[in-house]
Write a structure and sequence with these properties.
single chain; mainly beta; Metal Binding Protein, Guanine Nucleotide Exchange Factor, Chain A; six-stranded antiparallel sheet; three-stranded antiparallel sheet; 2 helices
């Protein structure tokens, strides 16, 4: 599996639609060219990485976690916590409009899927077993993220 931290992101955000508003209109072929096969499987096809295998599950540095597809800011390290699940977990997103939620009834269960509100990339799932102050656990695939320090 590729390390999301080492995957290059286009230096021009409009290349993947962040500023131009075209991120949702990016073709499947364009996503395949921009992402590694693992990132594409997870972020564009709704896959999941194995627990304890991603680059950020045990990551402790201070900074911001961005969408691997469009580079939108999604989570701050200030809201990251150790959930014991093997995936990066955050008790809140960086802003109310950064993350969208959707009903996921795959795999014989009903869960709340979280996606990047800008480009619709699959991030992971939202659970109601997190710490205060929100009680939420945004359980996120490392392959859907890139980390940036200030």
């Amino acid at each position: 599996m590729a390390d999301a931290a080492s995957t290059p992101i286009p230096s021009d955000p409009s290349a993947c639609g962040q500023d131009s508003g075209l991120a949702r209109g990016t073709s499947e072929e364009q996503w395949r060219q921009q992402l590694t096969p693992e990132q594409f499987r997870i972020a564009r096809q709704g896959g999941t990485e194995r627990a304890f295998s991603g680059a950020y599950w045990n990551h402790k540095a201070s900074g911001m976690y961005h969408c691997i597809c469009c580079d939108a800011e999604l989570f701050s390290s200030a809201t990251k916590f150790e959930s014991g699940t093997g995936w990066p977990s955050f008790w809140d997103g960086v802003s109310a409009g950064a993350i969208s939620t959707h009903t996921d009834s795959s795999h014989g269960m009903v869960r709340t899927e979280i996606r990047c509100a800008n480009c619709d990339a699959h991030l992971g799932h939202l659970f109601n077993d997190g710490p205060a102050p929100t009680g939420h656990r945004h359980c996120v695939n490392s392959a859907s993220l890139v980390f940036r320090q200030p």
